[in-house]
Amino acid sequence: MHYVALAVVCSVAVSLLLKFAPALRVDLQRMVLWNYLAASALCWGLLHPHFDAASVHGAPLLLALVLGVLLPSLFVAMGRAAQSAGIWRADAAQRLSLLLSLAAAFTLFGEKPQTLKIAGLVLGLLAMLGILARPADAAAPRGAFGWLLAVWFGYAAVDVLFKLVALRGGDFVVTLQLSFGLAFVVMGVAQLLRRARFDARSVVAGLVLGALNFADIDFYIRAHQALHAAPAVVFASMNIGVVALSAVAGIGLLGERTSRLNRWALLPALAAIGLLARAAG
Question: What is the pLDDT of residue 90?
Fold first, then answer.
């Protein structure tokens, strides 16, 4: 379980770095750009994607291209959500995107509904209503609701795209490498268009972000490999761990603005993840 714990810590650390980018005088978009250089290099060096005629021919290039555009856009949205709504609400929205993925499994992939999955879906949707609710404090930043929705829908879209990769028989590591590389190119073009200047501070922050981002993915994969007989345990521990740790960090340590409804929404969120994990097991 130590791999799960490390993945949880890395995931919350990513959210913290995104949240504090303005305080560190780091441009969010430039940080996301260099993040993908680090993630792409680490993917190449540690996961060893196998590029040959067969793997390239069988790679879902269109899906990789869509991911290359969606991933950096989503990272920026996650940063805005963490800054405006707080890391715990942003992380909860990210983790509860599995509800939309489940709905897609029912409607697009022909998965049969089960009682536990339906119960988890209902509880999770109730939790999202509470999490999305704006705190009563009139000084709360505007735009939080929209960024949280973008995170919720965006991560679900990424999950659906990777399911499509699996259904088409594509190599996950090859697709991940292509997506990271394309994301770097997309963000690079975006920075050229906005005439962004080179900023060493953003480069360093981006490389750290990329290392944490990749470590999160790598540790999660290793956790599934180590506990291959209990995938539901890994799934539940990862998602519940991130929601719980980000709540401790955001509410307990950083004093992020929350309403009573926001805080109570944590209970059905954790219950929904637990039910879905049990159904998956």
Answer: 94
HSE at residue 143, side-chain half, CA atoms within 13 A, is 10
Domain boundaries, the chain: 2-280
Distance CA 101, CA 223 (A): 21
Angle of the 172-193 helix axis to the 144-167 helix axis, nearest 10: 140
Nearest Cα to Cα of residue 97 among 63, 124, 71:
124
181 Ramachandran zone, left/alpha/beta (phi>0; psi -120 to 50): alpha
> Which residues lie closer than 8 Å to 196 by C-beta, 6 or more apart?
27, 29, 30
Cα angle 79-102-12, degrees, rounded to a multiple of 5: 30
pLDDT score of 164 more than 70:
yes
Question: What's the burial of 262, exposed, middle or buried (CB within 10 Å: 0-12/13-18/19+)?
Answer: buried
Check residue 59 and give its pLDDT.
65
| Residue 138 pLDDT | 47
Q: What are phi and psi of 23, to 5 degrees?
A: -65, -30
